[in-house]
Amino acid sequence: MQAQTLTVCAERWLPFIYRADNGEVQGLAAEVLQRVAAQRDVALRFQFLSISGCYKLAASGQADVVAFATARESPGGWQQSQQPLVFWPLYAWVQSGIAEQRYHDLQRFAGLRVAWVPSYDYPQLLAQQTHWRRVSAPDSQASLTMLAGGRVDVVFDDYQATLDIARQVSGRVKRLDGLVGSYLEQFSYRPGLGWLREGVDREALHLAETGALNHFYLQNFRISWEQVRNAPH
């Protein structure tokens, strides 16, 4: 009997899901999905596309799971994960000449130019702000480049996404200590995959209880599991 294979569509995102140089798919989200699927002798095939590409693949019946998907944009009848596992933790990046070293509150950025990537799902607290001026940017790299060049005053992004970019603009930008907010990212499953959704939720709960998630976020984002969960959403 041929083993069942499910297709997981995701946008590449270190350290949660990505294809390593050796061709293997790695990252927290990928490992959890693979571990649960293996319990039923189910193989996973990973397709890396933009999130809009993943939604199109799901709508055409060519994907079984979409990573980091919203219920609003998933096909009808698809189910969302319930237990928190993946968060997008946001820090504030500013120009290096700014005196302060720590983030205190959003009023600090009133009247400033904020790099804003329209395709990103920002925490509601940030998305509802009207006291700053949004400047559209295509992605993280463009945002920090704009900041280094003085075209914007602040960038909201995560530690991992900005790590290599910050090295490229070394001396011109810096990250303020303290989380600005976090956004819970969910998996979306096609109908009939309740067993996979429930298994991943159980695994997420287990990782939280054992302290594994705390270690993961401290190592990769310089923030504890409790802090990322309690940050403004």
TrEMBL record:
InterPro entries: Solute-binding_3/MltF_N
TM spans (from-to): none
SUPFAM superfamilies assigned to the protein according to its UniProt record, in alphabetical order: Periplasmic binding protein-like II
Keywords of this entry: Signal
KW Metal-binding (keyword) present: no
Location of the Solute-binding protein family 3/N-terminal domain: 9-69
Protein name: Substrate-binding periplasmic protein
Organism name: Vogesella amnigena
